Amino acid sequence: TNKIFIIYNDTGESKARVLTVSGTTITAGATVTGGATSTLLVTGAVTKIDTDKAMTLYNEGGTCFARCFTVSGTTITSGSMVNLGSRTNPYLIGNSTTQAFYICKNGSDTSGRVLDVSGTTITANTEATVRTGGTCVRRHQFVKLASNKFMVLTSDDNGVVCTVSGTSFSTANNSLSSGLISTNGNAVGAIVEVTAGTTYKYYQGTPATVRNFTISGTTITEGTAETLMTDSNNLYKIFADMWGSEIGILSINASNNTLYIYIAAAGNSSYELYSDATLISGTITDTNSFVARTTALNTAINSKKFYFGIKNKSGALRYFKLTDMMVEVK
Known about the structure:
There is one protein chain. The chain contains 1 helix and 33 strands. The chain is mainly β. A hairpin with a 2-residue loop joins β7 and β8. The longest helix is centred in the last third of the chain and has 5 residues. The radius of gyration is 21 Å and the shape is globular.
């Protein structure tokens, strides 16, 4: 509960470390080198397998590799790299303490594999097709629904539910709205969990919309899209898991210096905006599934830096920093 496993690129070389947190103090363990020519594929390339184990993906000379690490204290032990073939857009999610599910782009298709783990040894089971004629273009369009069950959104506007059984998996295709992924898949498209295994929200960009995805068995039921913002000058950031299942979007309209905040209704019935612990905008109150509140921030945006927070009714406070029109979550 107080350890973080990180893996990163450093001048063309992949490295791993364990960070231990005590209060506000961070202690870094020794660095483990992945190899002089190994460049880690950062997006979607690291997953927790067990309390002391993580799996990562690498790209080396255009070939994808998987590697398992175990952690004892701040000491990292690395296993051998396993060749997964010449693939792109590889994403990885842990399935159990001894298994992970991996998908990748294979030409114009999406492929997948079940990866078994014993100690630091990975066994790559037979690769199979997840979707023909469609690829998963973003890590946030690949999500674990439950043990042995995953959802993949593909570029041909399809939602695939993959069910793992032993060392293989089966698929069920679900047609989604035309243009849902194909039009905006490379912009902003992200699945956020509301209720594990059954209810999810899908956010997409241009225009920014949100809709419900309800899962029953291997069937995906798509809800009506709700438009969050339409102004092309809006710069926005999705944030998730603020307080359990609360989710939302921060948006800045660059043309009129206005901050928009959209928050999904969950366990809290009201929120307040703060700047340096001072109430600046009254209470944000839930009305339907989403609420919107606008606050003029002319001085803040012109100065390109502004700190503020959102407080829920239980008193929990989350801070954000707006700098040069970007949003950082603190």
